[in-house]
Amino acid sequence: MHQRHCDNAMQHFLEVACGPARHASTIAKAAGATATALDCSPAMLSYAKQLAEAAGVAGSMRFVEADMTAEGWSQRVEQPADLAAVLLGSLAHCLDNDAALACFRELSKAMRPGGLLVLELPHPSDLFGGYCLEEEQYIEAWDAQSEDGSKTVLVEWGREGDHFDLQEQAGLGFALGAATPAGVLHRTVGLSMYAGDALASSEVEVVPQRQFTLQEVELLGRAVGLQVVEVHGDFDAAVGLDHEEAYRSVVCLRRQ
Q1: What is d(CA 83, CA 14) in angstroms, rounded to the nearest whole number?
Q2: Burial of 78 (0-12, 13-18, 19+ CB in 10 A)
Q3: 138 three-state secondary structure
Q4: Which of 29, 47, 81, 89 reaches 20 to 30 Å from 138, CA-CA?
Q5: Mean local confidence (pLDDT), 10-38
Q6: What is the C-alpha separation between 37 and 23, in angstroms, rounded?
Q7: CA distances from 16 to 3, 37, 158, 213 (A)
Q8: So what's the pLDDT on residue 168?
């Protein structure tokens, strides 16, 4: 996508809300670029560093602990990004307009003029097709095993009763003094770890997630000098939003 929309060579990649930073380490290795991985979780960044060392790219990567909705983090990105990305729907954590605008503003500041920002968001049909209202559609579960097979983690994604408020757009709830922001899907996430057949630990959390429309993304980008140049339904550029295999919104914005 960078080659498709940008004239300059990609020398530096920025992954925001990186989690384990697998995308950053993969691109650093494949493109011979340097990379900055930013996340607000110290534990996740520590894990990301371990993975980068195992991949042999730790020397090409820099790790920054920061909240993507906070002002000023772009000053800690030492090299302007030719390509930046917020993937796996992580933009959903910008729950109100102030947080979203701050995130976009810092992303723009951290990028080189002519650089590309790639956002991975839910497909518009999730919102406009009523998918968010169908509670059973959000109940998923899967497991993963440790390398030695001694531990299994069961992941629960969504529960019956998870709430999505249609009456107001995200952020307005704060302005009206609501306890929680309206226009946000409240997704229940559970992690249960088993040692053999015995339950070793279990954690459950309700995670609020804002559902962005493409019009909102376009407007946020315009406010900070980013222009939408293409939207795909997958990371395969041949898959458009209306393609039968489309399941994401992959939005490309170029910095002016």
Answers
A1: 6
A2: exposed
A3: helix
A4: 47
A5: 97
A6: 9
A7: 20, 6, 24, 20
A8: 45
- Say yes or no to pLDDT of 73 above 90: yes
Q: Which domains does the chain have, with CATH numbers?
A: 2-125+211-255 (3.40.50.150), 128-209 (no CATH)
Please tell me the chain's helix, strand, coil percentages from 3-state DSSP, rounded to the nearest 5. 30, 35, 35
Question: How many whole angstroms separate alpha carbon 7 and alpha carbon 24?
Answer: 21
Nearest to 28 by CA among 1, 65, 55: 55
Q: Percentage of the chain with pLDDT > 90? A: 79
Helix (H) or strand (E) holding 194, with range, is strand 184-195
Chain-centroid distance, C-alpha 130: 22
**Mean pLDDT across the stretch 91-117?**
96
- DSSP lists the bridge partners of residue 206 as 188
The answer to whether the Cα torsion of 212, 214, 215, 220 is positive or negative is: positive
Parallel/antiparallel/unpaired status of strands 226-232 and 198-210: unpaired
Joined together, the tokens standing for residue 50 give 């371990």
Report, as an integer, the average pLDDT of 128-141: 70
On the question of pLDDT at 177 being above 50, the answer is: no
This prediction has a pTM of 0.90
* CB-CB contact of 57 with 21 (8 Å): no
